[in-house]
User: Fold this.
Amino acid sequence: MKNGRRIGIMGGTFNPIHNGHLLLAAKAQEQVFLEQVLFMPSGNSYMKRNVLETQKRVDMVSLAIKNHPGFELSLIETRKSGNTYTCETLNYLKAANPNTQYYFIVGADILFQIEQWRHPEQIFQMAVLVCAVRDDYDIDAIQEKGNALAASGANIIYLNMPKLDISSTDIRAKVKSGIPISKLVPPEVAHYIEQEHLYYEED
Ligand code: ATP
Ligand code: MG
Assistant:
């Protein structure tokens, strides 16, 4: 059997996409030798309410990745109606490309949530998890959680990357308060947010 392709999946709400997402994907691409990273905006999430309309989140992802070789937009999850589940997305991709090895790229917060997702054991079987540090989790807590998930069948690669204190939630709050976000998102995304008057009336 010929060697499979190595493809990363960078899933997110991307409300909006920011430099933390882009650095995470770039570090994964470089350290895990990924041929391509698919940026996969979520459709309607059952976990998050009041999310900006999908087309605008997709537009911002397109703008943010357009000059990065190997970064691609994937609309698999936004084209589906109803909730989207990572296990279903991976099942679909694996059925279409059985020789491809998928790498599911996540921030550490997701390690602490993934057991609550639908069929985590299927996710672990179909993809390698590639995990970065974020927020207040310390390395020991991340390793400990990772070991517990590994005992349930997960394969996890830890990325070597600096902690970037950026979140979409914080960006939305800053826009609403009139605080500049130009260091947190690519210039094209900052421009789009301004032009479309996004997040000014966020609750
Ligand atoms: P929100 O605040 O709305 O939840 P977010 O910044 O967490 O937004 P998401 O779209 O929820 O962004 O996250 C997509 C993925 O990117 C997740 O795996 C998340 O852990 C990861 N991620 C987001 N921000 C960072 C960051 N600063 N460093 C590392 N990983 C990050
Ligand atoms: Mg998040």
Observations:
- Residues 12-15, 20-21, 24, 106-107, 109-110, 132, 134, 164, 166-169 surround adenosine-5'-triphosphate (ligand 1) (CB under 6 Å).
- The mean pLDDT is 93.
- The chain is about 40% helix and 15% strand.
